[in-house]
């Protein structure tokens, strides 16, 4: 996990926020992606709405298995064959429904309109081709550059992403480079054709902390100088705090809280978001500080029972949470901020629920809680 020091609310407040009157570059409406498996239907993404504007960054945050990668693969149209996108799901890029795009046009969708940076750089790089061959092939195929122009542009891209001695590295194979350098090359490949939208799915988790910061800074710098929209996916709320305009928190295939980064941090409403926040280490903490962790595990999203999927782990859970499913509703502080919770934090109902459970030492779901962890 990334050390984020004194970030969180303060860093988020420095961010300009998502409030913007620009049109949506990407709009996802009612997206449901299920897998039929011998164990039942896995509802990996179950009714998600998202919006990304040109020149802005959306952070998608959630624990392992919450549906972040399936969601991004659905946008990229690179889902596994066993995935089923349910009727009524819509993914619009610049107003065009991606479901209607022809296979021929699809070939140019990746790279030119949409690009993705994966957690493992070797997912995008071919081990038997040099860095230069991979970059120039992309440039020649999508942009029609001749060999000489493609080489010049490839070296410019390698320079832009901070590869030292780019002319030498041009002739090297991926295995000659460190993990951080390989990830820089995949970013060069991803931005080669100036995509409208870049999706970075956990682009730094395999790298050490210093290199993580450099890669995230690089993505931020690239975006600041272009009109590219970006989705930054991570399990670490600390990573998106100072680097995004808006955030969507995912749990069990659904968005449970979303809003401009500033509002989300200053008026956090969902107990799951709060738990993710509490799990971020801070540089100012004394050594050996016990980090509160979220009790329990994320649920399997196979044939989910009624009620709130977070109820078994939620310190605020009440009887209603076990039978009714909360929907995303506008929070009280901003129309752009919404949360799916019957007892939102910072509201009288939420405070009463949390205090009642803390003094009883147990929630309505039967989960025992330590009152020291319920602030
Ligand atoms: N091909 C598949 N077949 C069946 N289930 C799948 C398949 N791919 C993903 N899933 C399931 O869909 C759910 C969401 O998976 P996803 O990979 O999107 O999670 P994630 O949020 O990206 O997690 P992580 O942080 O570990 O990358 C999980 O329960 C996962 O097991
Ligand atoms: S209070 Fe209830 S509805 Fe809100 S997150 Fe907890 S279990 Fe879900
Ligand atoms: Mg993933």
Secondary-structure-derived class: alpha/beta
Beta-strand share of residues: 15-25%
- Across the major sheet, the strand order is 7-8-9-3-10-11-13-12
Average pLDDT number: 87
Bound molecules: adenosine-5'-triphosphate, iron/sulfur cluster, magnesium ion
Distance between the termini: 23 Å
Shape, please?
elongated
Count of helix runs? 12
What is the CATH C level class of the largest domain, in words?
Alpha Beta
Helix-strand topology string: HEEEHEEEHEHHHHEHEHEEHHEEH
Radius of gyration: 22 Å
Please tell me the total number of domains.
2
Oligomer: single chain
Give me the count of strands. 13
CATH topology of the largest domain: Rossmann fold
Can you identify the CATH superfamily of the largest domain? P-loop containing nucleotide triphosphate hydrolases
Helix fraction bin: 25-40%
What would your notes on this structure say?
There is one protein chain. This protein is an alpha/beta fold. The chain folds into two domains: 1-113 and 195-285 and 295-307, 3-Layer(aba) Sandwich (Rossmann fold), CATH 3.40.50.300; 129-190, no CATH class. It has twelve helices and 13 strands. It has helices at residues 9-14, 68-76, 103-113, 131-143, 147-160, 166-169, 179-191, 209-224, 237-241, 261-266, 271-278, 348-360; strands at 24-37, 40-53, 57-61, 83-85, 90-93, 96-97, 114-117, 197-201, 229-234, 246-251, 254-260, 329-330, 338-339. The strands form two sheets. Strands 7-8-9-3-10-11-13-12 form an eight-stranded mixed β-sheet, with helices on both faces. Strands 1, 2, 4, 5 and 6 form a five-stranded antiparallel β-sheet that branches. Helix 8 links the parallel strand 8 (197-201) and strand 9. Helix 7 (179-191) runs parallel beside helix 8 (209-224). The chain is elongated and about 70 Å long. Residues 1-21 have low confidence and may be disordered. Bound molecules: adenosine-5'-triphosphate, iron/sulfur cluster and magnesium ion. Residues 68-69, 201-202 line the site of magnesium ion (MG).
């Amino acid at each position: 996990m990334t050390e984020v020091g004194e970030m969180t609310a303060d860093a988020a407040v420095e961010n300009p926020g998502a409030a913007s009157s620009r049109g949506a570059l990407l709009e996802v409406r009612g997206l449901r992606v299920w897998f039929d498996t011998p164990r039942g239907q896995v509802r990996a993404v179950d009714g998600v709405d998202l919006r990304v504007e040109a020149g802005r960054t959306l952070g998608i945050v959630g624990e392992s298995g919450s549906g972040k990668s399936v969601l991004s693969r659905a946008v990229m149209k690179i889902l596994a064959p066993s995935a089923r996108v349910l009727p009524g799901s819509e993914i619009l890029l610049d107003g065009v429904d991606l479901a209607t795009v022809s296979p021929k046009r699809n070939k140019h969708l990746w790279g030119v309109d949409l690009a993705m940076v994966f957690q493992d750089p070797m997912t995008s790089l071919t081990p038997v081709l040099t860095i230069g061959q991979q970059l120039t092939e992309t440039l020649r195929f999508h942009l029609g550059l001749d060999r000489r122009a493609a080489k010049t542009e490839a070296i410019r891209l390698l320079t832009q992403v901070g590869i030292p001695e780019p002319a030498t590295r041009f002739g090297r194979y991926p295995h000659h480079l460190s993990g951080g350098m390989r990830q820089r090359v995949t970013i060069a490949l991803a931005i080669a054709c100036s995509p409208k939208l870049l999706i970075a799915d956990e682009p730094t988790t395999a790298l050490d902390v210093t290199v993580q910061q450099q890669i995230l800074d690089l993505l931020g710098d690239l975006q600041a100088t272009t009109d590219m929209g970006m989705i930054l996916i991570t399990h670490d709320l600390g990573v998106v705090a100072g680097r995004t305009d808006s955030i969507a928190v995912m749990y069990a295939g659904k968005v449970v809280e979303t809003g401009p980064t500033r509002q989300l941090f200053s008026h956090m409403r969902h107990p799951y978001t709060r738990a993710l926040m509490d799990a971020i280490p801070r540089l100012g903490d004394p050594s050996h500080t016990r980090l509160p962790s979220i009790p329990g595990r994320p649920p399997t999203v196979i044939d989910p029972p009624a009620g709130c999927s977070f109820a078994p782990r939620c310190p605020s859970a009440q009887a209603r949470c076990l039978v009714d499913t909360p929907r995303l509703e506008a929070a009280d502080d901003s129309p752009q901020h919404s949360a799916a919770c019957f007892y939102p934090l910072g509201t009288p109902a939420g405070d009463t629920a949390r205090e009642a459970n803390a003094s009883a030492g147990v929630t309505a779901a039967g989960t025992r809680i330590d009152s020291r962890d319920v602030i």
